[in-house]
Amino acid sequence: MAARPSKVYFFGTCVVDLFFPDAGLAGIELLRREGVEVVFPPGQTCCAQPAFNCGHLAEARAVARAQIALFPKDLPVVVPSGSCAGMMKQHYPDLFKGEPDEAAAVSFASRVVELTQFLVNVLGVRLTDRGEKASVTWHSSCHGLREMGLDDEPKAILAQLSNVTVVPLTRERECCGFGGTFSVRYPDISSAMVEDKIADVEKTGASVVLSADAACLLNIGGALEKKGAAARPMHLAEFLWERTK
Amino acid sequence: MSAEHGPADFHASSTKALHDPQLRANFRRAMDGLMAKRAAQFPDPAEWDALRTLAASIRARTLAKLPELLEKLEAKCTANGIQVHWAESADDANAIVLGILRAKNATRLVKGKSMVSEEMHLNDFLEKNGIESLESDLGEYIIQLDGETPSHIIMPAIHKSRQQIARQFAEKIKGAVYTEDVDALTATARRVLRQKFFEAGAGLSGVNFAVAETGSLFLVENEGNGRMSTHVPPVHIALMGIEKVVEKLDDVAPLYTVVTRSATGQSVSTYLNVITGPRGAGEKDGPPEVHLVILDNGRSRIFADPEVAPTLRCIRCGACMNHCPVYTRVGGHAYEAVYPGPIGSILTPQMEGLAARHDLPHASSLCHACVEVCPVKIPITQILVTLRKEAAHATPGSTIRDAGGGRDRLEDLAWSGWRMAHASPLLYKAMGAALRVFGPFVRGGPGPLKAWTQARTLPRAARRSLHEIVREKGLPDA
Prior knowledge:
The structure holds 2 protein chains of 2 kinds. Helix content of chain A is 52%, strand content 12%. Chain A is of the alpha/beta class. In chain A, 60% of the residues are buried. Chain B is α/β, with parallel strands linked by helices. In chain B, helix 21 (409-423) packs across helix 22. The radius of gyration of chain B is 25 Å and the shape is globular. Chain B starts with a helix and ends in a 5-residue tail after the last helix. The model of chain B has no long low-confidence stretch (mean pLDDT 95). At the A-B interface, helix 1, helix 2, strand 2, helix 3 and helix 4 of A face helix 2, helix 16, helix 19, helix 20 and helix 21 of B.
């Protein structure tokens, strides 16, 4: 296990900030309960992934540069999203290649860590479940899974909750169809993908679908609501905090 | 294809495919099966990692010395008695094939599977020139009966169900009765094709690996039709793209093991043909004449740009399409290209140009499932993003075909606005506030709103942002 820091930065992400603030707060509270001081630079906005993925690199760099400047100290940058963490950790070094601030970007990237992985691998949290019996299912968001290697940690941490049953999806590792602008460039394909995803969720009979990525939750949650399905979306951090606070 | 049917349009074709429940069921079933078979072949993540690292390094080393290896291949093949021809374009390659056939007065060609021949639209070309070109791979034979193109690079008829094929055989093959029995269907095709091998004036095949060190052509196949096409007729014509060369004989085994396991979940293929020259003096079989046509067709241009050059590592296993959630739902024909799926979405725009095909680099949710299974570690998603970038704004000196050809001024404007809003904390805050105030009144709308609400409700901004909550809690801010 990596050394246990007493202080970390928190990068909330734009989607959590605007749509799932409770998930962000839950992430912060989970860290603070472990005795970690959490610093939240107020100027933070977005990791710049939308522009980067669309090939608008100049715009992406401008926004990324503004973020990097807000996290100067040698502290971990904890991110409640596998996708935004993947952007900052895996793609910032490429985005700034050959730029005057390449070294700052590389240093920043090396400090980025996804929240669940930080809780499990660095802090080694032990949780006590205080919630009612619940059946949940887990959507392994693509970038968390394939860019950050977030696979075992969510399952390990959910296994600590004695009253929670995790019913796996048939296609746990398949994309929910969000894909940023993909969802509006190719709405028919994206809709087909999310419709399959929520059918899979419904088949599990779970009351909650969990993910460590708010963007997937917007997509899956919106589709569940449109269909009038019973299951509701929740960020893993919020679920963990609500059951253990 | 695009030249005959108007501009290629993935958008329209994919939407059409999504409304075909039979097609969707066929692909879902087939791709599920292929994914399971492949997974069973790579049970140990450490072994998988070692195998693909080796395979990727072989392909990368090959590409690093591509011109030199091609020259060596030509010299070795020539010394072995194989006649080597260079073709810059598909038209050049067609003319070369026609020239070989005309010189032998051949009017019938029997073909093993070759994706390069699909790039050339060879069957159409030969037909127009009075030469019968018959596909002998079962899948290719099935689609040729219906005048279709392959929907998958290794399983060309995968879009059809057993029942659809049964109906087609009963209708189109003389003497065939309706049966859904796979063995009986295969026997029917075999009966028709077997005779053709003996009547054909020439046989044609693709190439999986061409070994520069020995001048040998490797052909991986399961049906024996590849062997028949290359050994029975008096002339064998092999087609390859310039990237198919490998340096040494020792390079073949590591690539072979990942191609069969990744493609069909087989530990080995039923046949592995190695052709190192025509029939020699005193030998009893093999064609007296062997030709190798080496096609560029835009590959040199891909080779020239290190950011996209890994595209050429591809060994055509098809695993990327088998695992692609987009391909699985729309099938191969929707791409309106020779190569569909993730590899097609990076290869096609580079071959046909970004002006015509800037739709394809966006035909992905960037889920990385393709990257995860690629046995030669092609950074497909990274190249998709590079092509999106080059479509929107050509990097000065870019060698990518029609760079800048997908520029959209309105989109440029939108990204400028996005940049302003997110590079400035104040504007970002104002945008969030506006979303909270006006958001609840928006229920739908045109453009992206309409697209989003097709299957989803619009997200509602939370009453208070995380920024506000954190400020109230008095968290340290530096």
